[in-house]
Design brief:
Chains A, B: Keywords: FAD, Flavoprotein, Oxidoreductase. Two copies of one chain form a homodimer. The first copy, chain A, is an alpha+beta fold. Chain A is built from 19 helices and nine strands. Among the domains of chain A are: 135 residues, Acyl-CoA dehydrogenase/oxidase, N-terminal domain (Butyryl-Coa Dehydrogenase, subunit A, domain 1); 118 residues, Butyryl-CoA Dehydrogenase, subunit A, domain 2, CATH 2.40.110; 141 residues.
């Protein structure tokens, strides 16, 4: 039942597919990101997540967080505080933050691999430091020097955590409806008043202070989302006094029960403006974008955890005989991994996880290049890919994380449904990832409504050119034919969107979700073709890791045979347009 | 949040699609199943499930069942006992049972509609009387007159409940591995010894007695599933003494927490053989087949419940403006039902639910005809459809029930994930329906391995002829072109299966799950074409229910545009064969 960090799989993507050990150390500031150092840190991360973090996962779910209305405090599950402390003290909160504020200055890619491990081991616990990254990024981009100097070292070291306070009872997706107010004070601070809901880590007992980043409106704010400003509101003020930002209660949720999801009441709490007045949405997107990639990684991490447990079960559980005759004649029945339909569920997980890992790590390495690239052109090209692929990573990896966890549960039968096994918790935990940091429907609208059209469609053109370039360079790559057909289908869908969605935004809205999925399937097929090419080259060169590389080729073939064909259905769905969605009046439903 | 039985939708399928008010009263024994009587009973069922049953659902989930190890007894959630009592006293347990044992002798179809309501209102509570039907059916088919006279009236009245004791720790799907033993006693009874797990209602406090139907092996039993016999083991013996069949504990489960899922220890418990020695599997299939149809209905009922709540939310929740410009300019934002992507999630539910309801009710009406048909030929034809469609109903309706509940949760965003709304419970409850009474993978193997080949493929030929006949008779029916293409695809897949799966059973196993889904999508498309034809005829004839019939046409079109195209992907998946599933050794995973 225990988690083992899939280091060999991670290394395959990092070094053999992405050559991060050549690319990253060549970037100014990432000279230390050599393979030796990366591997040493990943080995440490594996030990910590396997031995310290993972054991807190199931007990944390059963115990949950407890709110004390007397003190307005929250008790996290037993063991969380100690595990978090060890995580922070060993430097994991500081991994990819700048050296000047006490960070380790390592690439985001390394942090992402560590985050995958954390999410496999205990998503609820991982969310406390995970959200802190958003606060750090917002401060780095928009904080004053004074704010940076005071808050960043404490957030980066993990001494304090950060939150993102966006949602209110009447507004989630539509932040223009925010009612929280910020009144300017004589000393240059602001008095923030309002209620925020679903605030992850809004209150907890892991750290002594919590730094809330709060969206609110100034008295002179224009209407809608253009009138939102961002404020920093610490739980404990720099003078040591308790700020009037209190937890009003906890949500009772389907999953991530070890994560404190708080109602936060700001009662004239003292805060400071971050960035410019009325420009809070821009700062929020800085927090949000890194958070969106991280949520994609959560889906990946949960899928990996579910796969490991269900694979172990499939190898152990004896039930019925192989359709090809007994495989374990000395036992009462064969292990269920002999059955084609069980393998279908295992390979759905394996092929999806490995393809998604490649997509996610690639995207995060582009993020590193976009920030550390040697020249403007390289940074721009990388940023284009990050912008384009962020909603794809967020939505596809969380949808698939949920589906993979469900496949794992399903192949375990009744056992998967009981709490004797962690599968049902993985499914419950995975469910939220499709919703928070922008629902997956919102990700799809972001892709078709914003990302595709950016800079005259430059990103998507570059993406097509990249896949096309690979096919031209490697016409005999594994699955090249299927990939070419998928690319052409995606290009056709893109043209359909350009022709129909520009003039009629409801057409774009109607196509968005199947289009994002079509985009994702094509992208993952591209990475599978590249990974299979590496595997074939290794086998041809006489590698002794034959099992590993043969499994790569088999999993890739499964993806092409049994997952990629979904693009046929998605294409038909896109081309059917908005008519069947919009035909009914609301009353006719 | 409350449940409203969708009587108009139910009546549409019963009368306008299936003409049950003409077909059923024409069958010997079902003369009373007129529309007046059916409607009167459905109205009563609606009142009971809405007002008495539904209010117990959420509290029952929170409280769960509690086991007392001292007394080995189980306390069901508060209110369950009273609600069950009212359900039984009003005759709902007796609806479709024979008059001679105190039943009401009404068609299974009526009972199925009532079961749909029950499953929407409280699946956990509905399972106690639901499982009793299996015991009643087994006794009716295989009990002695003495057994029938003593047990049936008490089970049918709901005074007692019944269980199905199949699974053991080492065997679920593979019942040949059963270890429970039955030793013949001098008085003609048997001493049953062994442990059964996952026994729904194995112990409860709703009734004074529980009748366990237990699979066990006689001392001279041949190995494997051919050596299984069925025994009746009551909790309280006819002489009033307590039998040695005890609950050893409860499972802690992801969902259906109000349903007591018991470990049952039979400690030399007194039992009686049902049917012939070593022929228990046959009797078990009698229990199982009706249970499988019922589990399909559970999926349908949960999907309907989820749809109602999420539809209400979509009409109320104000967030963002329509992509076509403000629709509710006097409010801060538009209700989210204006958004194409929200409608996609609503229509996925609506189109699936209504299509699945037609498929399920059709199948159950065939069950009625198979038992009450006037002549052998009619009974045989109807039985062919029941046999063929039972695995399709079980697997497709439960897969889709889960997906629909998830779509409902998704469109509600964070609200759907909290326990302030019942969506997360519907998702948790729906999860088990894909597993119990034979996992959906087993259903698919049943379809391709047993049902398709029965009587030289007679059932599937008759099914194709029925769809083909409809298309010939109504070449201009709505969606006729798409249905024809889907039918041809299914026929091609069937041919592929015949050519490949007969000689190589692993090929059949590899194709099974996508084939079942392809079969289901085609079948539901067939029913949508028929339903849309009715709707069009009603509109052409000037019906005043224009909203209702227009919505039918829109939902049907959605199914054809956005769900049926999945058959393209499934076809590719089937034709890819077993190679990518079987390429890896177990060790390479």
């Amino acid at each position: 039942m225990s988690y083992l960090a899939p280091l060999r799989e991670m290394q395959f993507v990092l070094y053999e597919l992405l050559h991060s050990d050549e690319v990253l150390p060549a970037l100014p500031g990432y000279e230390d990101a050599t393979r030796d150092i990366m591997d040493a840190m990943l080995n440490e991360g594996a030990k910590l997540t396997q031995n310290v973090i993972a054991p807190t996962n199931v007990p944390g779910d059963r115990q949950g967080c407890v709110y004390d209305p007397e003190t307005k405090s929250v008790k996290t599950p037993d063991g969380f505080r100690e595990a978090y402390k060890q995580f922070a003290e060993n430097g994991w909160t500081a991994l990819s933050s700048p050296l000047e504020y006490g960070g380790q200055g390592m690439p985001h890619l390394l942090n992402t691999v560590a985050e995958e491990m954390m999410c496999s081991a205990n998503l609820s616990l991982g969310m406390y430091p995970g959200l802190t990254h958003g606060a750090v990024n917002a401060l780095l981009s928009y904080g004053t020097d004074e704010q940076k100097d005071y808050y960043l070292p404490r957030l980066i070291s993990g001494e304090w955590t950060g939150t993102m306070c966006l949602t209110e009872p009447q507004c989630g997706t539509d932040l223009g409806l925010i009612r929280t107010k910020a009144e300017p004070q004589a000393d240059g601070s602001y008095a923030v008043t309002g209620t925020k809901i679903w605030i992850t880590g809004g209150e907890q007992d892991l750290t002594d202070n919590i730094v809330h980043l709060v969206l609110a409106k100034l008295p002179d704010a224009p209407g809608g989302s253009k009138g939102i400003s961002l404020f920093l509101v610490p739980k404990v003020l720099p003078d040591g006094s308790r700020n009037t930002a209190f937890c009003g209660g906890l949500e009772h949720k389907m999953g991530i029960r070890g994560s404190a999801t708080c109602v936060m009441n700001f009662e004239g709490a003292k805060g400071w403006l971050i960035g410019e007045a009325h420009k809070g949405l821009q700062a929020m997107f800085v927090m949000m974008n890194s958070a969106r990639l991280m949520v994609g990684i959560q889906g990946l991490g949960l899928a990996e955890a579910a796969y490991q447990v269900s694979l172990g079960f499939a190898k152990e559980r004896l039930q019925s005989r192989s359709l090809a005759g007994p495989q374990a004649p000395d036992q009462a029945a064969d292990p269920i991994i002999v059955h084609p339909d069980v393998r279908r569920m295992l390979l759905r997980q394996k092929a999806t996880i490995e393809g998604c890992r490649a997509l996610a790590y690639y995207t995060v390495m582009q993020l590193d290049i976009s920030q550390h690239g040697a020249d403007e052109e390289a940074r721009e090209r990388a940023d284009d890919m990050v912008q384009l692929l962020t909603p794809v990573v967020k939505a596809f990896l969380t949808d698939e994380g949920f589906f993979c966890a469900n496949d794992g549960l399903q192949l375990m039968g009744g056992s998967g449904f009981t709490q004797d096994w962690p599968l049902e918790q993985f499914v419950r935990d995975a469910r939220i990832t499709r919703i928070y940091e922008g629902t997956n429907g919102i990700q799809a609208l972001d892709l078709v409504g914003r990302k595709m059209g950016m800079n005259g469609g430059r990103s998507v053109k570059r993406f097509f050119a990249m896949v096309d370039g690979f096919l031209k360079e490697h016409p005999d790559a594994p699955y090249a034919g299927a990939l070419k057909a998928a690319l052409e289908r995606l290009q056709k869908a893109t043209l359909w969107l350009m022709q129909n969605g520009m003039t009629d935004r409801e057409q774009a809205g109607a196509a968005a979700t199947p289009y994002l999925r079509l985009f994702a399937l094509t992208t993952v097929a591209f990475f599978w073709s590249r990974m299979a090419l590496v595997a074939r080259q290794q086998l041809d060169a006489g590698s002794t890791e034959t099992d590993f590389y043969q499994a790569k080729l088999a999993a890739g073939q499964f993806f092409i045979d049994r997952i990629l064909p979904q693009s046929l259905a998605l294409m038909a769905e896109i081309e059917s347009g908005k008519d069947s969605l919009m035909a009914m009046t609301a009353e006719q439903f």
